[in-house]
Design a protein that fits this description.
With 75 residues, the chain is of the alpha+beta class. It has helices spanning 56-59, 63-74, and strands at 8-12, 15-20, 37-38. It starts with 7 loop residues before the first strand and ends with a helix.
């Protein structure tokens, strides 16, 4: 059984656009009820981290080449 207290993502195209918190009273998330729709928290709008490689060719890649790889992963 799905946990009905979890927030639900609203996806438009390939992008998560909003989070819909369930109405705890009715245990449902209604998109038509704009009071339940919230923006994505800023800390979840970007990905950061460190990549480490021992491959000599990849080690010389610039930021744009790595960004291209990360963008393909996000798709």
């Amino acid at each position: 059984m799905q946990d009905m207290t979890m927030a639900t993502c609203i996806i438009f195209g390939n992008t998560v656009t909003r989070i819909c918190s369930p109405d705890v009273q009715r245990m449902m998330c209604k998109i038509s009820d704009s009071m339940l729709l919230m923006p994505i928290p800023p800390q979840h709008l970007s990905i950061s981290g460190t990549l480490t490689t021992s491959n000599l060719i990849m080690a010389s890649w610039n930021r744009e080449m790595w960004q291209s790889v990360v963008n393909r992963v996000l798709e």
